[in-house]
Amino acid sequence: MNVFSQQLINGLTLGSAYAVIAIGYTLVFGVLNIVNMAHGGIFMIGAYIGLLLVTEGGVGIFPALIGAMIGGAVLGYLLELFALRPLRRRKVTHLAPLISTIGVSIFLESVALMVWGPQTRSFPATISSELMDMGAFKISGIQIVSLGTAVVLMVLLALMLNKTKIGKAVRATSENIETAGLLGINTGLIITFTVMLASALGAAAGVLIGLSFNAIEPTMGTAMGFKGLAVLIMGGLGNVEGAMAGGFILGIAEVFSVAYGASTYRDAVAFGLIILILFIRPEGLFSKAGKGGRP
Amino acid sequence: MLLELKNVVASYGNIKALKGISLSVEEGKIVTLIGANGAGKSTTMKTIMGVMKPNEGDILFEGQSIRGKKPYQIVSAGVVLVPEGRQILQSMTVQENLEMGAYQRKDKAGIEEDMERVFAQFPRLKERLTQYGGTLSGGEQQMLAIGRAMMARPKVMLLDEPSMGLAPLVVQQIFDVVKAINQGGTTVLLVEQNARKALQIADYAYVMETGKIVLEGPAQEVASNPSVMAAYLGGRK
Fold it and tell me: FRET partner for A245 with CA separation of 20 to 30 A, picked from A159, A189, A230, B206?
C-alpha cells in the first residue's frame, strides 16, 4: 500500500470537513464583514444534535445530518436575531459583533456542558469503520460518508450561489450591500438567510468531524473554530472558493505532518504553513480586488 | 406629480447636506438637478432611495409617502437609481448584473423582452455578456448600470452623474440613451455636472447650491439665466 495516497485520502477527508466549516465563516463575513465567533459553538451543537438523533432517535446518519443542519439553521436565525441584528441597527464598530458572538459561543459551550456533561461521547458503530481496500489506499465507511457529504454540500452550495436567484442575491449583497439594496434586494432578509445557511453548514461539519474523530465534547468547537478562522484568512476573506481550497490545504498539511513523523507538531506545521502562505499572499489565496483586505 | 420632495432636510452627522429641498418630477418628463460638487445632488438621490434617512420633510411617490422606506421597498414602488460611480457588481457577469436589475420581477417573458431592449440600446453589452463586470471599461460599465436599471422597468429612473469620467463620444451616447429611455415612457430625474448637456435634454431644471435649491424653471429658461450661464455653462451661450 502506498503511504502517500493513503495519507492523501485521510487529508482530503479531514480537509473537506474543514472546508465546510470555513465556508460558513466566509459566507457570514461576506455579507456582514464580521467574523462570527459563534460558528464553532454552532458546529459543536450540530455534532450533539447529530449524535442524539442517532443514539436517542435511532435514525440513520443521513437523517441525523439533516436534523443537525436544521438545528444549526435555527440557531443561526437566533444568533442573527439576538446577537447581530440589534448591533447592526445601532451601527456600532466591528468589534461589537465580535464580542457578542464570542458571548454566544461561551453560552453554547456552557449549555452543552450543563446538559450533556464534560465527558467525550462517540457515535455508535452503526457505520462501518472497516477499511475497504481500493488498491492504492484503504478507505473506511466513515471516511466515504464524511468526504462524500462534504463534497456534495460544497457542490450544492456552489450551484446555489451561481445558479439560483437567492444565491446570486447573496453574492451581490456580499460584494456591495448598498448596491444590492438599490437593485431591490431585501438585504436584511439575505443576511438572515446567509447566517442560517452558514450555521447549517457548520452544524453539518460538526457531525462529520464528530464521526471522523469519534469524539464529541462541549469544547470541540473552540479549537475547530480557530482552524476555520485560519482557513477563512488563508483563503481570502469572504471568498467561498478560497475557503474550500484552504480547508483542503489545512487538512492535508495536518495529516501529512503526522504521517511523516511530526505528530506532536501537527498544528504547528499546519499553522506554520498558513503563516507562510500569508507572508506570500497577505490578502489570502483567492481574494478578489476590493474585498479581501476590507477590515 | 409622480415624485415630490417637500422641504427635505438630511445630514451626515452634524453637517446638514440638504437644508430643506423641495422639488417635483412630473410624469413623462426629464427633470435635471444641476450644481457644483458638494451641492447635495447625490445626497438628494440617496435620500429619495432610502439609503439616507431624512431628518425632516417628506418624499412622495405617486402621492404616497416613501419616507423611511428601505431601498428595496422603494425599488418595488417603481423608483430605481443608476448610482454615482456606476456600482457594477465586479465579481458577477454582465448577464448576472442585468438579471439582478430585474431582481423583484417575476414575469419571465417581460424580463427577456427588456433584456432584448437593453441589447438593442447597447449592443456592446450583448458581446460582453459572459464577461465579469469588473473587466468592463468605464463607458461599458455605465451602459451596464443604465441597462441594469432598465431591467427593473421603473416608473422613474434616477441617474446620478452618468457622464462622469467618460470620453466625449460616450457622453453623447449616454445622453442619447437617457433621452430614448424617456421617450419610451420612463420619467427621468437626472443629476449632472455636465449642465450644458443636461439642460439640452431636460424639460425642467433645478439648480442646487450648498444644500438648497437656488433656481428652478423650464430647462431652456434656466439655460439662458445669466448667473447659470456664468457659473455652469462657461460664460456665454
Answer: A189
CATH code, domain carrying B97: 3.40.50.300
Of B82 and A226, the structure prediction assigns the larger pLDDT to: B82
Instruction: For the beta carbon of residue B46, count every other beta carbon within 10 angstroms.
Output: 24
- Asked whether the predicted pLDDT for residue B237 surpasses 60, the reply is no
* Whether A260 contacts A269, CB under 8 Å: no
Residue A169 contacts B, CB cutoff 8 Å: yes
Domains annotated on chain A, with CATH:
3-280 (1.10.3470)
- Three-state DSSP at B152 gives coil
Sequence-ordered list of residues with C-beta below 8 angstroms from that of B136, at least 6 positions apart, any chain? B88, B94, B128, B144
How far is it between the farthest Cα atoms of chain A? 60
Q: Is A124 on the interface with B (CB under 8 A)?
A: no
The confidence score (pLDDT) of residue A1 equals 54
C-alpha pair distances (Å), A152 with each of A171, A214, A264: 20, 21, 32
Residue B237 lies in a domain: no
Distance CA B233, CA B237 (A): 7
With contact defined as beta carbons under 8 Å apart, do A234 and A249 qualify? yes
Residue B92 domain flag: yes
Environment class of B67 (CB within 10 Å of its CB; exposed 0-12, middle 13-18, buried 19+): buried
Host domain of residue B164: 3-232
Query: Cβ B90–A185 below 8 Å, yes or no?
Result: no
Chain A: closest CA distance from residue B164 (Å): 18
Kindly provide the ipTM of the predicted complex, given to two decimals: 0.93
pLDDT in tens, B106-116: 999 999 999 99
Tell me, yes or no, if A163 comes closer than 8 A to chain B by beta carbon.
Answer: no
Determine if the pTM surpasses 0.90: yes
CB A32 within 8 A of CB A84: yes
Strand partners, B59: B5
